[in-house]
Amino acid sequence: MQYLAGTPYQKTLATMERNAGQLLGLINQVLDFSKLDAQMLTVQESRGNLTEFVAQTVQIFQEEANAKSIGLIYQSEATGDYWFDAGKLERILSNLVANALKFTPTDGQITVSLQVTDRVLLTVADTGRGYQQKSSRLYLSGFSR
């Protein structure tokens, strides 16, 4: 893509590359669900700076949030290194933030927070309309029509 810098195609190619990456991520999620059903899902923990990792993942969505006039805020109380599965955490957090962007209205706000008590709590909250309590059974059950 570097040889196309400054051309009208650069932005289109960047979008295509991002979308291809997201598609690959979806395929990997389907494979992980299959492994989970077969009780073969493995956790690949590594030690790292959780605050920076979450900040970098949230930053991926900053441009889209700005384009939609949505405030995207990240707050963290965590310090030091933690053990976590970077691939799975990135996938989960990306899905939550992407959904929040999808359902948060213009001039709304999304807050990602990382809190530490006796455990680590990662929260994604938004000012979107949410969903009705009676619909929650559909969200929490398997695939449904």
Strand order of the largest sheet: 2-4-5
Number of strands: 5
| H/E element order | HEHHEEHEEH
CATH class of the largest domain: Alpha Beta
CATH fold group of the largest domain: Heat Shock Protein 90
**Tally of helical segments:** 5
Radius of gyration: 17 Å
Contiguous low-pLDDT stretches (5 residues minimum) are 135-145
Strand content: 15-25%
Q: How far apart are the first and last residues' alpha carbons, in Å?
A: 41 Å
GO molecular function: phosphorelay sensor kinase activity
Domain Histidine kinase: 1-145
Organism: Adhaeribacter arboris
Pfam family, one: HATPase_c
Detailed description of the structure:
- With 145 residues, this protein is α+β, with helices and mostly antiparallel strands.
- The protein has two domains: 1-42; 44-128, Heat Shock Protein 90, CATH 3.30.565.10.
- Helices cover 47% and strands 20% of the residues.
- The chain contains five helices and five strands; from the N terminus they run αβααββαββα.
- It has helices at 9-37, 50-59, 62-67, 86-103, 136-140, and strands at 46-49, 71-76, 81-84, 109-116, 120-126.
- A three-stranded mixed β-sheet has the order 2-4-5.
- Helix 2 (50-59) packs across helix 4.
- The protein is globular.
- The chain starts with 8 loop residues before the first helix and ends in a 5-residue tail after the last helix.
Quick synopsis:
The chain is α+β, with helices and mostly antiparallel strands and 145 residues long. It is built from 5 helices and 5 strands.
Tag the structure with descriptive keywords:
alpha+beta; 2 domains; 3-stranded mixed sheet; two-stranded antiparallel ribbon; 5 helices
